[in-house]
User: What shape does this take?
Amino acid sequence: MTKIAVLGAGSWGTALANQIAQNQSEVTIWTHRQNQADEINQHHTNQHYLPKAHLRENLKATADMAAAIQGVDMVLMVVPTGAVRSVAKQLAELLKAGQHPIAIAHATKGLEQGSHKLISQMIAEEIPAELRTSISAISGPSHAEGVIQGDLTAVSVAGADQVATSQLQHLLATDTFRTYTNPDLVGAELAGALKNIMAIGSGILIGLGYGANSQAALLTRGLVEIRAVGTALGAKPETFLGLAGIGDLIVTGMSPNSRNYRAGRALGQGQALDQVQADMGMVIEGVNTTAAIYEFAQQKRINIPITTAIYQVLYQGADIRSEIKELMTRPLKSEA
Assistant: This one.
């Protein structure tokens, strides 16, 4: 039996840990809040993040990371982008006392501000190579709320190590949750991060009163920008046509379960960004990712007009309707 630790007891971490527990694997979820660990262990719920969910009784929780990773074969990190380095650093210190290196995976969708680094790059910098056998990532159209309720879901497990991705693939797979492997880790991570920008834009349109035509146009042209940035960073173009790419873009850009979509909708309805972030109570990854990608594109001279418009709204206080008009009245061009 594979023993795995999931670091991070937010909605997605909890949903993935519960998914793995369905396969009778030995899984422990780590949280830095003792009261949350007590709730999961005693009541099999996580009311703050997944209020309607009843968790598997074989899913255990702890606020002690050392206890969580004791004897594990794999660690799955599911923490916000801003916490990746600190959690990875803490994990590395604990792994130094271990008997052998372990597989590391993550399910975080974002980029580091300033450095523009991927989650896997941050993990690799904080956890020395001698302490890990591989780094993989889970990505795809998969809202935690749907997964926990048994909604039919398919995701991609990406990474260069086929043994590790296959292991994680089988740990997650059930009759309601289908997993595919993909060797393009860079592409999967970038697709998962960049679609959050477009989800904010899609929500803005709905908040303003626009409809499905507008959403479809933004998401389709947004995919062109995502692919342009991705290939500039070494990703394979075909990855953006798969689950981690267009699949995740569709579900995140059109579902009220997406916090990035909800944030955009609130902005479109006239709320200030600070208020939206305070009301959400959870990290809105697309906000930081917008800044990171805008800065990167400026440096590399990549034309990303939709992302630029969203950046102007989020960080420069630009008028939303003026930005939309400017996008729609740019010089006409071929789609090819």
